[in-house]
Design brief:
16 helices
Amino acid sequence: MKEFLVVFIACASVPPLIMNLKALRRSLGRRQGDGAGVFGVVVLVLGGLLYEARLVPTGQPTQLVVLGLLLVSVVLLATASSGLGSGRKFHVGGAAFLPAAVAGVMFLINALMNDELPLEQSLGRLLAVAILVLAGLGASISPISIEDICRIIVSSVLFILIVTAFRPEVWRACDIFKCGPFGAIYTGPFSSENALAIFACVGILCVLASRSVSIAFWTLIPLALTLYATESRTSQAALTGAIATWFSLVLWKKMSVAGRSKLSGQLRFQAGVVIVIVAGLFASSFYLILTAEPSSFSNRGNIWIRALDALDGDWWRGLGLDRWSYLQSIGILPLLFPHSQYLLLLFGGGVAAVAVLLVFFGSVIRRSAASSSSLTFASAYIVFLSILGLTEVYWNPMAFDGHTFLVLPLIFLMVAGRRDAAEVTSQDKYKIIPALRAG
């Protein structure tokens, strides 16, 4: 049964992959100058997934290749934008570099608190910062739409699901905490089922932004089956919260009788409500960490308690992420990662790293308030990440891997809101499937 399911998911991924690629090609055909932007996004998304799945060599040489390809993409974009008759106006704002700022804070603290690290290892950490800087710069000068970003993400995840059928070990045995519905837990080509579940959830959220019901329907089948087979309860709960946020905002607009003159104020109010919810989730994470028992959340509490003991109240600056590995080597910390996005940021970059991420999320939501549908997508996506981060690490700012691209849609949403809010409002591009669109 397990082998049949893997093959079925792979086969079911082929038609929607073709559909999404055709839709992407049609979209690119309507605009000029998107090729370099698409290339850069593919490098980050598909390249990161292949790297995470160890389908390409891992290590600094591959990261340097990624950095070089991104640099080529940015140069081509800059050349196209300054070409004769381009007529484009791009604004490189600091908000697009907030993810790089999170990584930069963690890099500096890691270097200061762990000065015994070899120079090569410290410089290797800098690669992740440079990649995020180029991602922010590329987003600032690229004309690619958020809908096309979603198509690339969905196509990349579907491609990985197809490749999985040719991998030897894609299941792991059940443990004392959980067991999948098929007598094992589906990990795909990744080291953990949680990684596969996160990518499937991001794909599902991107599918909801599609304007095509048929593409959305056929794409949801393999993605939903994959999520079900992983038995990743945190991802499932986070996706439920995200979809609830999405539907709530859509229904809010449908039930509203405000005229267009009051629409912008209503959207700003909705954005404020979502920001409060996200801030509440950030605060809730530390409540969970501080009140956890060793057996809490499948023994995650044991990790959190020992990590807080290692921090010894040094919350303001943290200890640097490489200190985690050192403390593992001498037995102070267990041989596991923090299993909390917020604890990872706190340990590796102190309060500043957590604060910058919260500012980034809030800025994306506020900028997306120019359009009800872009606000809906941004809010659902950020709520998903915020819930997910309560008991999982979805992004390590100090490393390039398959999770690096998760901040990419938010960077592009930030830039789109800054670039031309009036145009986004008039086009109202980022919509839920037609039957559920706000009127």
